[in-house]
Protein 1
Amino acid sequence: MATDRTTYPIRRPEHGVDLRSTVGLALDIAAVLARHGYPPVVTGADLLHPHQALFRLIYQETTR
């Protein structure tokens, strides 16, 4: 890569909701993990953890 600038994390949306952050996105990531040999998602809690991890990966912490 030619640059040292990072793309992630990005700013959280000002209105508080990013319509791209869906259960479908979490399911897609869970499917990729399973294809790479990780255990499949079998419960709602299993899906919640990757979804939360994605949120932390994608968005900056907010300062209050």
Protein 2
Amino acid sequence: MNYSEDADVKLALKFRRKWREARMFARAMASADHPILAQIIPIRRCNLACTYCNEFDKDSPPVPTAEMLRRIDKLGALGTSIITFSGGEPTLHPDLDLLIRRVREHEAIATIITNGYLLTPDRIKRLNAAGLDYLQISIDNVQPDDVSKKSLRVLNRKLEWLREYATFDVTINSVLGSAIAQPEDAYEIAARARSLGFNSTVGVIHDGGGQLKPLNGTQAGIYERILGLGKGLFSFSHFDTFQRNVVKAQPNSWHCPAGGRFLYICEDGLVHYCSQQRGHPAIPLSEYSREDLVREGRKPKGCAPFCTISCVHQTAMLDEFRTRPQETLEKILHGPRERDPEWTPPASVRALEWMFLKNSRAKKIFGALALRVFGVNRGGTNRV
């Protein structure tokens, strides 16, 4: 396959992926009784030992493949839209490709969060063939140190391979917080990600309970510089309502949907609120019911005001848009416009702005039309 043909294939796959994302969004707007995102652990073991991380061990075996397939089937039966493999280090599971294929058989969006160390051209091509949709790598520093070996120097060649071979989308997450010795590294990492054509996000390191560690003045300034790089409106780095309060050590007022719209399934097959709240509710996934989804998703969580778990925030953002579209869209648009008064949102966002902020009749007409186009009914039984 020559370069032109390869570019055409990537473009076609990207279009199909965006179409499936649009269907996911439409279904999330039509129904509140299914999980939007589930993180599942195929192996707790990791090949690294970052000192700030509490989500790994050094000797756990992979979850048996047959059991992983049953868990994915259960998530499919619950109507889960996005299934993310995390860890530990998920690429250590010997049958990860098979697990990704099973996710796609359920017409869900398949993603992995990896440290990237085991990526090679052949491994990337296998992920392509399996049908992976998204891959995220967190890079903590430019040069490896005693805290983390996930450095740009070590991973830069892997990033170049991803640019060359990956047909899935790639997001590079840089990190700020007290455990990071050189906070200016986060900007260099984000800039490198953008130069390679990848999405980039920036996260704030949390403590062992998922709670915020406020940034100092230097770190907060770097955070603002990263936001100034621009790109995706709906990436977490641009959903300012949560992160700006985290940076300032201020609480967020929001409802955490974990246990309902967001699920975390550990290696033992138990459902938890998130990686930092393991033990709650700790119900076996095999027994998890729609009643459990509704009950746990509606429960207030005492950890929510100072939470930094971005994937749960993103899930909550979709529900906020479903229940309060005008207010949520205004908040989303406020951050970029505050930084750059001449900023123009993408065409798709301008359409949402016109529908929800400027033309309530269009909202009803186009909303109903979108549900029909994407094959979604308000009962929530259709798949993404």
Protein 3
Amino acid sequence: MPKVKANGITINYDRQGSGEPLILIPSLDLRGTGETEQTIGPYSTGDLADDVEAFMRVLGIPAAHVAGLSLGAAVGMRLAAKYPEKVLSLSLHSGWPKSDPFVKAVIGSFQLIAKATGSVHELVVQGLFPWCFTPELYAAKPEYIQALADFVRSRPVQSIDSFMAQSNAVLAHDAEADLAHITAPTLITFGRYDQVTSTRFAEQMKNGIRNSEVIIFEGCSHAPLFENVEEFNRSTLNFLMRQKERVPSELAS
């Protein structure tokens, strides 16, 4: 996959399709993940947003639709607030405006598991997956969970130090003051059974971001895009199609 130098680091990304630009986070490998350059830190979700903006600048993308899941959503809201002219529309999936005591407790447990196992891959599969998927999905589709685990284990190895820097950025995430500065039409989604970034954040995000709407995916936890692919794609594509009229003609080619 291609790589570019932006904001002082080498960023790995995948490019598919044609038409209006859509940046998916983390299909764009964030700092310290995938094949993007690993840095020890410290850095913040705001710094990660600066990486994305620099990436867009280097590739000559003046503005794009932006979609992010989990940490990607945290980065997306910081990007849309700091660089509103860069974001045509914003999709925030399983996001949160500020890390509260429960989020911090869960992320702290991830850090302990990572240190104990010495493997970020095993942390994700053994420690993070049960927060991402419902017990019903584990029971109904064990082969699907195994396929996702195999994919995670096939990815480039993230060092423990790099994971600690990334997770510390999650612990420190605070975009509450940024919500009012987001001007792009925004889709906010949650899984009904997500505990970490649960619907407890829905009202604050909906009220804080003008021109926003909320969708709750029933029967899902933290990762509806893997748990109910058909419904997730239908709902998110419907939102994106409604934003086409906002795109300057030079961006739609």
